[in-house]
Amino acid sequence: MFWLIFLVNFLNVYGQYHGKKFECSPIIIPMCLDIPYNATRMPNLLQHGTQEEAAITAHEFKPLVNIKCSPYVRFFICSVFAPMCTEKVPYGLTSCRSVCTAVKEGCLPVLENLNFTWPQFLVCESFPEEGLCMTPPELKNHIAGSSSKDVHKIPTFLHTPNSLTPLWGSKSDPKSILESEGVGLGGKLCPGSRIWIQTEEQDGFCVPLCEKDFLYTTKNKKVAVAWASSWAFLSLLSSGFSLLTFCLNKKRFDYPERPVICLALAYFFYSLPFFLRVMLSTEYLSCEIDPTTGKSHLASSGISSSGCIITFLLQYYFGFASYLWWTILTFCWFMTACKRWVSEGLKHYASYFHGIAWGVPAVAAIIVIALKQVNGEELLGMCYVGTFKSDAQLYLVILPHAFLIVIGTIFIILGFVSLFRIRNDFKKEFLRNQCSVSSQSTSLTTLPPSSSPSNIPHSISSVRLANHVTKLERLMIRLGFFSVLSTVPAIFVVVCRIHFYLNFDSWSKEAAKAATSCEPGWNTQRCGPRMSYPPVEVELLKIFMSLIIGVTSGIWVWSPKSIILWKHFFIRCLRLRQTKDIVKSDVNLRKTSSPCSNTARSSPPGYLGTQECRSPFVSPVYIPHQSNPSSRMHLFVNRPNMREKSYKTESDFSTSFV
């Protein structure tokens, strides 16, 4: 019996010393080195087996510690990931519920401001309210004043090497989060494959990582890219055809039609990034690398990425210029229809038109770049204005475009009213002439036949008026068709942008909440969206309407005159090529078959050769010498009317070049 009792006591003491040696270990998590205890025990409450594994997860809460959302946030986070270990307690000690409540009251508004919810594994109800748990001494008075429950202090047997050091700098604004150690909110506080970005002038925000899904699914992105590139290709063809047709005959497209060519030029360059998106990757066109984490994310300022700047300039600059040229086009129509301005009068202000249409977008683009509002777009993988900050898109895109649409629509309405008035005047004049001709024809039946030709001028003027009415009606139909095809798409684009602006914040919150709650551990690998939060149909409609204007810009050029112009161009090119081939073959034939080649080399200077060796285009002409009238100088001059011996007649020579 004695030996049995001795063995039990020995095993008990050995087990206590063994647990002390192998269960408790010094804290090595960098964020938790300055807390009021220095030993921990693994596994922790989240079942992390090692401190290295726990440090990776705990360090993602560093931004909350840096902003001082609560004075006890560091202590609370460390008590969860590195619970206190002591030889007197067989398990790790964590914070009391009162600490969790105090931290939640201070940090939850910050998380909600960033579109996140309180983590599920930090629910305060899961922490002990009484018993063996830890509460910082500074929290005792605050808790005692608001609750009658007993507050448990940190055990007195703990070794406290240092007091808590300051957890943040001089900034107390919760939005001013500084990532001093380069660890963003990408894992826990920026779920859904996003990363925290802090800029110098702006508040920080979460940005989706490159090639990751946040608002849109991968399938919808591929469909949008294919859709945009297809319409961009058609826009390039149509606008390019208009530009080449203009180069063939510049006099044909004079004011008030000249802005149509400038509109085609703007849409040619506007369509380029949509077409190049198929050949270039999202990484190059819309992403940049975070210097602190080294991760690639959608561009937040766009300055450091050359591909992002190029796609932004092509879309924003030439898109803005297209709206201005459309407004100038409607203004020219208005001045022609209402004020009776001719082409020379409008051409006088051409320099002002170009200065406004190309200068204003340049100033606006400089402002956008200076404000660092060039952001990557997730759907198409390109850069544009205010993708993350919707206010920038409102003031720099929506309002200017809407203003130009209103002004242009007013010009179109006033122009059509004037055209209808002119058409009615022509018809009244035509009917008046018809009545006068009919009355004169009835009165002339009683007159001699010699006076009957007096009604010929009236009939001629009636025919001219009829032609004017017909041409005016054709112009109105063509003008109306082009106006509808240009105005309606522009209105749809602005409406779609307004829809995105009004709903962007709610879509972002829904995507963030879904990404937060989709997996218990916030595993971002499994937290992709099952469906796109913005309606993809609306985005596809916006893409279509923005590119269809480039296609319709060529409608003004598509006419029988353009077909005839291109036909003559190809005929001239074909004839020019045939002429060059014939001349080249004739020259080679003379060089190889002429018997005079060797004679010319061995002849003395000034010797022109015999009659057989002379060029068929050179004939002798005798001109009297000034000093000696009796002598004659034997000269050879070119005779353009001479032909080679191979051409028997004039018709043979002319037909050889056709």
Question: Can you offer a commentary on this structure?
Answer:
- The chain is mainly α and 658 residues long.
- Among the domains are: 19-165, Frizzled cysteine-rich domain (Orthogonal Bundle), CATH 1.10.2000.10; 218-409 and 486-557, Rhodopsin 7-helix transmembrane proteins (Rhopdopsin 7-helix transmembrane proteins), CATH 1.20.1070.
- It contains 18 helices and ten strands.
- The protein has helices spanning 2-22, 51-58, 62-66, 73-81, 97-113, 139-146, 218-248, 258-276, 282-286, 306-338, 343-347, 350-370, 390-443, 456-517, 536-552, 560-593, 597-602, 650-655; strands at 24-26, 39-41, 194-197, 205-208, 287-289, 296-298, 374-376, 383-385, 618-624, 632-638.
- The strands form five sheets. It has a two-stranded antiparallel ribbon with strand order 1-2. Strands 3-4 form a two-stranded antiparallel sheet.
- It starts with a helix and ends with a helix.
- The model is unreliable at 1-22, 143-188, 449-460, 519-526, 599-603 and 614-658 (pLDDT under 50).
- The chain crosses the membrane at residues 224-248, 260-280, 316-337, 349-374, 394-420, 479-500, 540-558.
- It is found in: Membrane.
Brief description of this entry?
It is a multi-pass membrane protein. The protein is mainly alpha-helical. The protein is built from 18 helices and 10 strands.
